[in-house]
Write a structure and sequence with these properties.
Rossmann fold; seven-stranded parallel sheet
């Protein structure tokens, strides 16, 4: 391992499980000190922090409700206070709420919560973090392949819309932050084996059949792409969207 991020400070939202936890581990293996947020799984967050400490790095778990703007702002400030100015921001926190348009049983409160977590919180993290970031830093947001390429099944319009909006934000942030050499990119995963989309879930066979590789990816696949985008070898990449989907959108 080259430890290409030695001396860097990172904040990862939704970092206690799934893709977020894999990102925290990968950035720490590359030498970064990492603050990460979690919503409720305190034990998982503590275990992850201990794993990172064993890698000769440092991790700071911070409890934060991503749907609460004030809590998100406080999260960014606490990360900076604990570790110093930020070099890397990864927006990984997200929720997945389904529902067919026009369904009278649709949970509108849950959809509003999804907008708050998947879109408003991402914008709030970036707006709060940018004044605290070092020039030459990097922002990566985790989207979904359905946001730009195709929608694999019905009932996910609101979810993919939140992720499409994040992709649009990111392209504009790349322009805004270019003069400071702060890069902003989006990763759009396809079927990844997590609690949100388990490999044995109800749509797993459908997603596997539509993937060029015929299988699910792992959280570590996404984490590797994040490590590349925030590292020195991606210094000329900004405003880009990278699909990690096994060819689902091919």
């Amino acid at each position: 391992m080259t430890r290409s991020l030695l001396g860097k400070v990172a904040l990862v939202t939704g970092g206690s499980r799934g893709i977020g936890a894999a990102i925290v581990r990968r950035l720490a293996r590359e030498g970064a000190e990492v603050a990460f947020s979690y919503a409720s799984s305190e034990a998982a967050a503590a275990a992850l922090a201990a794993d990172v400490e064993a890698m000769r790095s440092r991790a700071i778990p911070i409890k934060a409700d991503q749907a609460d703007t004030a809590a998100v702002q406080a999260l960014v400030r606490r990360a900076q206070e604990a570790l110093g100015p930020l070099d890397i921001v990864v927006n990984s926190a997200g929720v997945f709420v389904t529902g067919l348009i026009g369904d009278p049983a649709l949970d509108l409160a849950a959809l509003d919560h999804q907008l708050d977590v998947n879109l408003k919180a991402v914008a709030t993290v970036v707006r709060t973090a940018v004044p605290m970031m070092n020039d030459g830093g990097s922002i990566v947001s985790i989207g979904t392949t359905g946001a730009m390429h195709h929608t694999p099944f019905a009932g996910i319009a609101d979810y993919v819309a939140t992720k499409a909006a994040v992709a649009a934000y990111t392209r504009s942030w790349a322009r805004d932050l270019g003069p400071r050499n702060i890069r902003a990119n989006v990763i759009q995963p396809g079927p990844i084996d997590t609690g949100m989309a388990p490999v044995e879930g109800p749509v797993a066979d459908l997603l596997r059949s539509r993937s060029a590789l015929g299988r699910y990816g792992t959280p570590e696949d996404v984490a590797a792409a994040v490590a590349f985008l925030v590292g020195p070898e991606a210094a000329y990449i900004t405003g880009a969207t990278l699909a990690i989907d096994g060819g689902l959108a091919a």
